[in-house]
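A quick word before the example. In earlier lectures we treated sequence and structure as two separate objects. From today on, think of them as two lines of the same record. Here is Polyphosphate kinase written that way.
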Amino acid sequence: MILPEKIKKQIAQSDYVSRDLSWLKFNDRVLDQARDANKSIIERLRFLAITESNLDEFFTIRVGSLYNYLDYNKPRIDYSGLKEIQFRKVIFTRTKQFSHQQHNLFINELIPLFEEHDFSITTYKKLTSEEKARVNSYFETTIYPMLTPMAYDNYHTFPILISNRLVFGVVTKAEDGSVDYKKLSFIQIPSNLPKFLEIEREEVIHFVPVEDVIRNNIKHLFRNVEVLSVNLFRITRNGDFTLEESDDIEANFLEELKKKLKTRRTGRVVRLEVSGRPDQWMLKVLKERWDIDDDNIFKIKRKSLLDFTGLMQIVNHPQFRDLRMEVPVPVPPLSYPEIHDYNILDVLNERDVLLHHPYNSIEPVLELLEKAAEDPGVLAIKITIYRLAKDSRVTAALLKAAENGKHVSVLFEVKARFDEENNLREAQRLQKAGCFVIYGISSFKTHTKLLLIVRKEGEKVTRYVHLSSGNYNESTSKFYTDLGLLTTNEVYAHDVSEFFNVITGHSMPNVYLNLITAPKDMRQQLVELIRAEAENARKGLPSGIVIKINSLQDKESIDELYAASQAGVPIKLIVRGMCCLRPGRAGLSENIQVMSIVGQYLEHSRIYYFHSNGESKVYIGSADMMVRSFERRLESLFMITDDLLKKQIINILQYNLKDNVNSYVMHEDGTYSKKHPDGDEPEFNIHKEFYNVSRETLLDLDLTLKKPVIEKSLPEVTVEEKVSNDIDAGLN
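And the structure line, produced from the sequence above:
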């Protein structure tokens, strides 16, 4: 598929980058990690699997959302100015190009490395006679009883095929006398079967795809029937929905949510991936049944794999432990170096503690919760939960607190995408234990991360507070970079208490002292901070903005950043994922630079820095600059006031801007270049350097914001073809 020049030109002329096209560029940066020959083969396979998981979600949610417009004839205009039908063409063109890159990388670069690392992905036909006998025995005893052929003909309705599940479409010859010459049956591969059967031969592990084993034993399911073709495919369904929640949240809302979750099984098909050369008659039947065309169909080479997420079985295999990413031992927080020697409750009565995960462990937060659950002085615990770890220590502590007679309030966000069922189950466990559980707030998704512990200490009551950018998930805290503040500061405690009253009741406070919240007024307050920098620049005063977030999509915020750039404010944006702002465009954004960091850890922290004529204002929290964050979510950003902690945050930004190992620089045309050390400059990898930060490091802080050199417009090329020094001079 080749895009018409008219569409290419329209995309290039827009002052905004398409959210979806920008996201695809992000996934290409993730794929770039799988291209990196300096990484181990296991790490490269891990990143390839991540790109597949990302792409599955993209089709489920973003392409699914597009089809909500297409199927109901609703108008939709993308940031690039394209209408829904034009944009559909663009999306499928770009995703097919990406899929082609994935599979070429796997076939041409990764598979040839398997042998030297003592493993292979081996087809059934390459097994020895003895190995085939063992595999066949496993098929007959374990796999065969789990398989269910589902016929589709005049007597059988079309079966419901599950999204993102491998399926065989088997075409058989009809019995003599039948009106139809061919018949079609489907066999879904159960999700609880391993992706690969493992056979060890001469100290080499051979991974045999389970679908290949089934294909070569398909005759057991079609006895005395002529099989004309066996076709492996996978579908992706629309999983995007908007919950219209009623006021009767205890009854109607939970039932509505359960019904919506079930629609993911029957949503319209938006993508069909087929392996090899599929039967054309079967394809015709599927296209008619699902109302799709050739754009929706992705053809995958037989020598590759359908669904790279299954590679995680190899990545997590104990045999390759030494090839997996080495995770250093976390270091103590700068403001809490005696982490193993003091009670966290005592420490927080003396000072604030900033946690920078994964460089600092989440242990102090878990310790605080667990001690609070047992401490007789603790009266109440309030917490917002978005995602939890499996066998969560957070849940265990809350259950223990309730068991010990403490008041426990938990706002469980049961609309956390793809974690709905787990959150629903955990919330009900807590509710049965006597906790006061709130299942979300009206039509808003609760994304803020807050913890409040109320403790009676003699004649006074102390409130212990944790505010964070990350989830209360001890598993992801080991590879997500996040920031959290632990404090007993009464100003924070007052703000958080007020915010919990908003969440659980009908309170509407007039003002927070250190907190900015959404959906109330976060966008407006950030706009005012941006405008203040623009006004300083117009007056000839020092000015500057540095923002580190996951996504930038809110058009109002982008317009304000454009206006600040035109006023002369130097602006540096560190945006991991999608970025709808165009940097370096003449007359619009000459003073804006955008970079993205993608590497060993998932960048998840959000930081907002405003120079404020030397009296810098620094905020951290849960919110990105997205419409959904400002209008449809409960979010919070909180100002850092402690001098040591503020220096730590500024140093984090400085290190991010200095990184030349994991960084990509965004160009005016929406493409990205990998940043490399310049000349004799040494490598600076933040995912290693943050383990070495000391208080002495904070003495040498310099966030001087120089105005960037404007690049000339560059033709769009792939990430690996970009030269490193196109634009990065101004970032150093």
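Notice the following. The first strand starts at residue 119 and ends at 121. We will return to this example when we discuss secondary structure assignment.
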